[in-house]
Fold this sequence. Notes:
Layout: H1 17-38, H2 40-59, H3 61-68, H4 74-88, H5 100-111, H6 118-133, E1 135-142, H7 148-159, H8 162-166, E2 169-176, H9 178-182
Parallel strand pairs: 1-2
Helix pairs in contact: 1-2, 1-5, 1-6, 2-3, 2-4, 2-6, 4-5
Amino acid sequence: MSFSLVRTYAPTAGFGRRSASGISLKYANAAYSAALSKSPQVLTKVHAELNAISKSIEETPALKAFVTNPTLSLKDRNASLPALFARAEGTGAKKESVSDITKNLFVLLSENGRLGETAGVIEGFNEMVTKHKGELNVTVTSAAPLSRDILSRLEVILKESQTAQKAKSLKVTNKVRYDRMCN
Length: 183
């Protein structure tokens, strides 16, 4: 990726989020439907690729700037997509090319000027995969990390709920957000 193509842009937190989530879900649903129609293995592959891309965007400031920058031209966006795909291919002997579904998704996002929706698209896709697998993910937000004992007790209590009983598996995650708890 030619990082010289990246211009600075500071997105406004929360601006347009309500309408953006609907747009993100449309792209997520299209990718999910395309992957599932091929096979469960393709769905798993696309899921892994999208999560690898998401992780790379969060860890690489230049990629994050590229994805969130609406001022880039279509030519610049399309020229930089291979670097994004390279992050999902893996390294070493396990290096596989990115699936056509993942490539098509990002080409479409790029052509429509919607690369800024990437996080929402991946989040929506992950939710659909979780639902498809019958998983129930519960995130407990706290000001300080919860002990394993407390998380275990929470999991036991949550397993008794009607929603958890319908799920094949339950995953409880503790997210620490001190800043939100103090405001």
